[in-house]
Amino acid sequence: MLEFRSGSSNAVNAQSAVSECMERAFHDADPKDCRLLIIYATVGHNFPQLISAARQVCPGASVVGGSGSGVIATEGVSENMRSMALMAISGDDVFVASGSGLTGRTSESLGRSVAANLKAQSDDISMVYVLSAGLDVSGDRVIAGIESVFGPDICCFGLTTADNGKAKHTFQFHDEAVMEDGLVLVGFADPSLELLTGVHHGSVPLDAVTFTVTKCDANQVLELDGQPAWPALMAKLGLPADTPPSDALPIAGLGMDLSDEESAEYHNPQILRVPIKVADDRQSFFLPTSVQVGTRYVLMERDEQHIFDGVDRLMERLREDLSGRRPIAVFHADCMARGRLMFNRVLKDEIIAKMQYPLCGEEIVPWLGVYGFSEYAQLAGRNQFHSYTTSLFRIVRKQGYQA
Amino acid sequence: MTERRRSYEELEAICTRLEARAGEHLVLQRDLSRAKDQVDSELMRFKSFQEYTTKTLDADSDDTFYQLTLEAIIEAFELELALFLRVDKETPRRFRVAARFGCDEAPDALPFDPEWFPGAESRIAETGDVLFDQWPTLNLATAIICPFRDREGNLEGAVLAGVTTDGMDFYEQIRDEIRVPFSVLVRQAGGLWINRQLTAGVLAQNERLSNLTKSYSRFVPF
């Protein structure tokens, strides 16, 4: 059976940060039993140094991870330029595969090939943690690629990596390989485990401000309402066409209508897409999903009260799912726009406490969260790709499971 | 009273105006969040200054002191690299690099001109600054440097922090707002450093006295 441990650190020195994380994660347990380390760090850290320091402590473990604009752990939230958090997993039923060359166009094929490598290691994988590049990706196609290998019943969860909001580079790593166009999949094959997902965003539509895609290519939106897409979107915000995506990212969420069933579970009528990358000529932009001509988007506004209310509703639902069980680990993907781009530190700590306390109470539950660009999470029983959400993935033992 | 029916063009103009206001509202919201973030940064900086002082008072060696100082600077100002420079007493106009953070390839010594430090405040160096010409191996794109002095006012050293040209994709340009807090932290570090030197002097003196007392005690029958 798999066992999970977590730790975090704000030490600016890579060696000290890893030591502090390991100390918090392992206490008196032996880190040498660790099979996999999942590490997230902000972009000020030197990733090769972190990986090397981690492997010294856990020489038998694979190391995977990536960059985020902040980390969220049992110890709290940090969006410092140098902060890190890790989840250490012991046990035999966890597998890793990765590949590079991820773009919006290659998402499905790379998803398929990496998933095939993963499946070749175990036929019993029931959930897949997805960790991908964040700037040029079609998240829905990555999911399609994974499902083409594992079938539609596979539970996908995870995130796209981020930087500190500049939207210039995102990093993923698998052992010594540090990539900017990587896809890393972690397969869980422990038959005693079950994944419970909760996802919510707190944005509301500005109903009058809509756009229809009139020209696109893969995940690139070329025209909205017959106009060059990026200037058209910026004009609605009253911003100049040469605005970099980092300046628009927190306020340019685009909503797409959901079905009634999905909308009921989401507590939101729209799912969001984020314009994360702009073409060099500043005429078009890229979304992290594939785009079709005729798709209608509505400009969305983040609403602080809606975010807080939504978290309360989400936690009520999550408590019901647990049926009295305590999670054995929680993976958490939060949109970076819900971090320092939205809340001050006090509110951010408050909102995270609102998530952690109902699930963990006074107990320490291993918790690995990261502020990324987008999220992979099930909605209404289907694997979906989201942006601007809080996505909580609780790993629990199945009720009545007997080995 | 009957209300006049608005024409399509009028309604369109109203709609455009409202859309523009909605856009302005979003931009205002974003700017407000940025302002909140800056306040948070100031508070965190203040907190890290306090922690720095507490930690360095317990530093058991000069190297630990240097390292704690540089780590505090990196943490408080979110910069890529930092150097602790000490005036080389044997070679005029040369700094010895006492400690480095985030730039392992920095040389062991760097030339300087006292005229670069006319006062006690820090100064920001941008492209074309003499610092960049004289210290090209650091590959700096933006930097801040602040001198510290001994009790007689002589230049004792300086602390440099900055971002390399490669690092500019992640780090911000150094803004004037950090000039004062940077000076405060470096002066604090300078003061602590001088105190360490004085304490070391007093301890050495005490030890000498203690040894002398022991050696005289052989002749004094207490």
Main sheet makeup of chain A: 8 strands, antiparallel
Overall form of chain A:
globular
Span of the ends, CA to CA of chain A: 9 Å
Oligomer: heterodimer
The average pLDDT of chain B is 90
Extract low-pLDDT stretches of chain B: none
Helix content of chain A: 25-40%
Cα Rg of chain B = 27 Å
Please give the number of β-strands of chain A. 26
Please give the alpha-carbon distance between the first and last residues of chain B.
Answer: 116 Å
User: Ranges of chain A with pLDDT <50 over ≥5 residues?
Assistant: none
Comma- or semicolon-separated keywords:
heterodimer; A: 403 residues; alpha+beta; eight-stranded antiparallel sheet; 26% helix; B: alpha+beta; 6 strands
Q: What would you say about this model in short?
A:
The complex is a heterodimer of chains A (about 400) and B (about 220). By secondary structure, chain A is an alpha+beta fold. Chain A is built from nine helices and 26 strands.
SSE layout and pairings?
The complex is a heterodimer of chains A (403) and B (222).
Chain A: E1 3-9, H1 14-26, E2 34-42, H2 47-57, E3 62-68, E4 70-73, E5 76-78, E6 84-90, E7 94-100, H3 107-121, E8 127-132, H4 139-150, E9 155-160, E10 172-174, E11 177-179, E12 182-188, E13 193-201, E14 203-217, E15 220-224, E16 227-228, H5 229-237, H6 245-248, E17 254-257, H7 260-266, E18 270-273, E19 277-278, E20 285-286, E21 296-302, H8 304-322, E22 329-335, H9 345-360, E23 367-372, E24 374-379, E25 382-387, E26 389-397
Helix pairs in contact in A: 1-2, 3-4, 8-9
Chain B: H1 8-57, H2 62-77, E1 81-87, E2 94-101, E3 109-111, E4 123-125, H3 130-134, E5 140-149, E6 155-164, H4 179-217
Antiparallel strand pairs in B: 1-2, 1-6, 2-3, 4-5, 5-6
Helix pairs in contact in B: 1-2, 1-4, 2-4
